[in-house]
Write a structure and sequence with these properties.
With 116 residues, the chain is mainly β. The protein has one helix and seven strands, in the order βββββββα.
Length: 116
Amino acid sequence: MSVDVERRKYIRRKTHIPVSISRLKGGISSKDSDSITRNMSEGGICFRAPNFIPMACRIVFELDMPAFSDPVKIVSRVAWIDKTASGEDYEIGAQFLDMSREDKELLMKYIASLEG
């Protein structure tokens, strides 16, 4: 019998936030796609993408967080990728690597507002 063990450090919260995704190559980001988040935590994000993004690829997210005027920018690394049941899109999980202190505070504030 197999027991599923939650290995995430942070609890994921369901979200539906517009996000702009850019691939980071050589310090330069190039726009890849727009999406909607599926869930998020203090350490990572899950989203759907129309294009394949390879494992360990560094990406930059610009999240249009509700109630905040400026988008939150986060440098991340693709941790996993699965094809959706329809076979047309990909569900991708990314680990947060770097963000400004201000963006981290906004992200934590938003995630805390989802608890309960």
